[in-house]
Design a protein that fits this description.
The protein is α+β, with helices and mostly antiparallel strands. It contains 11 helices and 13 strands.
Length: 381
């Protein structure tokens, strides 16, 4: 009997609610039996991808499904941020939201379709993965497959990275996740590493005030944080500051999970000088919701929130004039103290560019060790 050939792979741009439902549902088909996969909350993802989303005000975004017959076998997004500069980073288009069955032909078709769209926008490079901002779902896992991925980072089977190399993509850079226990197995405080304590104690900035964020001033605190990061992240390798609207949209979205002990604002003479932001490791609770908020997902998350023991370090920055002053160490020390007060026993820091030596020095001075690595790839158009 002659084998029936497989249906051809076709790519379809997402259009309408049905396509978006299929786009959001694909990871469930692929990973529903994977214990380390944490499904994002569908209602949140739908809102972020909807027309008019504040995440998309300054960017072009298209979503695509790969189908064989009527079966969805892959998905990808492609994003371009025009007018954000002419440097190497911004000359490229980004692919993200990548998911695929194990067929190499499906992977190739998805990446080629993203590249084609990028060329239409004038992009010279296709780089990724990365979803809607530079703060989330960056890179494919290449180390640490046996650990729970940190919040706003993804779960990836090993063949994703293998297929990137087979499709002619090269490593652009790695992003590293670090961790440290701040309470030992007996519930005792782990001493602050001497390097960090010494640098924090040596910080002597006249008029320095470091405090946690406040609900009553959250709008002003977010504005202060954006002003710091808009300047501080201009020197971070292979990145560019987020637009104000995108930064605030990301910030407001994650305030739903925030513990104010983990959000620190530094001012010198009343002016913003530095900021640091940790989040409760929501993936430790979101596993309980399994991607749904209603009818009972919210209750499962609420019950599991009390079991979260990790604070996830997402951002830290100081203005250039305060580099080397010890302000970084003060902010990290305050975060560690706040995490202990809030009952956390572990801090993880994700993700840090491998070439960002100043930031790696900060977390390594705090005694943190790598536990997971993500890789960003690129291919010339």
């Amino acid at each position: 009997m002659t084998p029936v050939p497989a249906a051809p792979i076709r790519l379809r741009e997402v259009s309408g609610r049905g396509d978006l439902d299929a786009f959001l549902a694909l990871p469930w088909c692929l990973y529903c039996n994977e214990p380390l996969w944490v499904p994002p909350l569908t209602v949140v993802e739908r809102r972020r991808l909807a027309p008019g989303s504040p995440m998309l005000v300054e960017a072009r975004l298209k979503l695509f499904l790969a189908l064989q017959g009527d079966v969805v076998v892959g998905r990808i997004s492609v994003m371009h941020e025009p007018g954000r500069g002419a440097d190497d980073v911004e000359a490229g288009a980004w692919f993200g939201h990548f998911e695929s069955v194990g067929d190499p032909a499906v992977v190739a078709a998805l990446l080629d379709r993203a590249a084609e769209e990028g060329r239409r926008w004038g992009a010279k490079i296709l780089r990724g993965p990365r979803n809607l901002s530079r703060l989330e779902y960056v890179g494919f896992t290449v180390e640490g497959f046996d650990t729970l991925p940190p919040v706003v980072q993804g779960f990836h089977p090993p063949f994703y990275a293998e297929r990137m190399e087979a499709e002619g993509f090269d490593k652009h850079h790695d992003m590293i996740a670090y961790e440290i226990d701040i309470v030992d197995e007996y519930g005792q405080r782990v001493p602050t590493p001497p390097n960090l304590a010494d640098k924090a104690a040596a910080c002597d900035l006249p008029g320095l005030e470091v405090r946690r964020a406040l609900w009553r001033s959250m709008g002003r605190d977010l504005e202060a944080a954006w002003k710091v990061f808009d300047v501080a992240y201009r020197t971070v390798p292979d990145t560019a500051p987020l637009p104000r609207g995108t930064f605030k949209a990301v910030g407001r979205a994650y305030l739903a999970f925030a513990n104010l002990e983990l959000l620190q604002i530094a001012k010198v003479q009343g002016r913003p000088a530095g900021c640091a932001a940790c989040l409760p490791e929501a993936n430790e609770a979101l596993q309980a919701a399994r991607g749904g908020w209603l009818p009972a997902g919210w209750l499962r998350v609420a019950l599991a929130t009390g079991l979260v023991r990790t604070a996830s370090f997402k951002l830290i920055g100081v203005l250039p004039e305060y580099l080397g002053s010890g302000l970084h160490a003060v902010l990290v020390s305050n975060i560690i103290d706040g995490a202990r007060r809030a009952g956390y026993t572990r801090i993880e820091a994700s993700v840090i560019h491998e070439d960002n030596k100043p930031m790696r020095a900060v977390v390594e001075d705090a005694g943190m060790k790598p536990y997971r690595r993500y890789r960003v790839y690129e291919r010339s158009q």
